[in-house]
Structure of Pyruvate ferredoxin/flavodoxin oxidoreductase subunit beta:
Amino acid sequence: MALKMADFKTDVHNDWCPGCGDFGIVNAIQMALAEMGVQRDKTTIFSGVGCSGKTSHFINTYGVHTLHGRVLTFAQGAKIANPEMTVVAVGGDGDGLGIGAGHFVAAGRRNVNMTYIIFDNGVYGLTKGQASPTLKLGEKTKSLPSPNTNYNVNPIGLAVASGFTFVARGYSYDVRHLKDLIIQAVKHNGLSFLDVLQPCPTYNDLNTRDWYAGTDLVDEAQKRHSRIYKLEEHGYDPAVHFNEEAEVNEKLSQSLIKSLEWGNKIPIGVFYKNEIITPYTVRLRDKIPNYLENPPAKQNIAKNGFSNADISQILDSLEV
């Protein structure tokens, strides 16, 4: 039976602020999972702490609400234990690029076949609007007593430099385009990262829906134009087609250059895609030949309430 978006909705009360970009992101995830026809009992949404942390409660699959900055560790562990599971991790920009920045970089080295989505609004929305790692230096939102004193993290650039093999950016108010990006990310054979720009109507009065729409901008013909533009509509090719150092370096360089565009022109779409690099589960299979046939999630770890592990030889060696 074909699944519909409604099949991925829950009845859990949602108390996000009206106009929050989180609504669009959750809708896009639900639409993507329905369109892909994923099995709900073989799909898990992991979330961190922050406004976005409730996402795992709002999607009708397995859900794990984890710790602040630690969502990637939980999600990677689950995927490695059960490689048949579709795993999507979500979290805020503070959660993933502040306290979780170390795990973000480490994840890129492994290339576990899963997807990580960051809800990027430039502030810590759950704790009254402090500047997050993505807020630009010198900017002052209405929740800050003075301009931001820290330089910002570039999520796209950091993901590319860390080794993520699919790196993209979406916009929460373009739900259908975001849905398509999520489908591409989930289907990608490797570690996917999706940075989603989303207005925070409560605390970020700079990067608002109107600002992204470019209501303050006019072109030479005195027509307003959006700050957002789609890479795929301008002939941009993010994919690495050949396992050659020159091409890989070229694709990495162009993605980093594009990631620096901001202000009056903000690109969304896929910045980098490389399916030539071996996923982590394949590397494990090379070390453990029966890993994919008998992964940890399928192994019996206890019988009649007692562990199957036999540590008698270890205990004997410790006798004095």
